[in-house]
Hints:
Elements: H1 15-20, H2 26-35, H3 41-49, E1 57-62, H4 67-83, E2 87-91, H5 96-99, E3 112-116, E4 122-126, H6 131-143, H7 152-167, H8 174-188
Parallel strand pairs: 1-2
Antiparallel strand pairs: 1-3, 3-4
Helix pairs in contact: 2-4, 3-4, 4-8, 6-7
Amino acid sequence: MGKNVSAKLGQGISPQQFIDGMTKNQEQFRSIYESFEWPNGDDRTFFESLNGRDDLRCLIIAADWCGDVVRNVPVVFHALAASGMPTEVLIMEQHLETMDEFLTMGGRSIPVVIFADQQGVVRGQWGPRTKHVQEPMIAFKLANPDREAADYQQNLSEARTEIMRRYGEGEGISYQSDIIIELRQLLSTL
């Protein structure tokens, strides 16, 4: 049997409430949100074409302290706003039982963007990062299963450095178009 989040529908906060309630990273989040530009008109048209659908809901597991949330969720918010899809944010620490249903390689990684139907049946999910940005962490976890190993922290630091490089810190925001592409591909199948 698949996952179901029906008990969580209506339990989250709105995207605006999430932004307004941020106690960490709010300025950076708002800056990314306000500077977002659609990669192309075709992508925007796709998300706008979803406005007639009433069969999908979105829950986003997030927290304001997380750098991946700060970088990725502003883009997700724009895509979902264009789609007209009902969207709620579940603060991770307040919904750990739900977080634990959506682990990434056995760990709590956010954001998790969950698409469900009206009955809460999960139809798809995205996150915590684009595939390209996530690759170094996947490689790290596969190569470093022993958290007590002498080189574990050094290797983790190297993986995080590569993730930041792939986010393009100081070099632009190409990862944002990857988010739009991956969300579009996922939603095209639902």
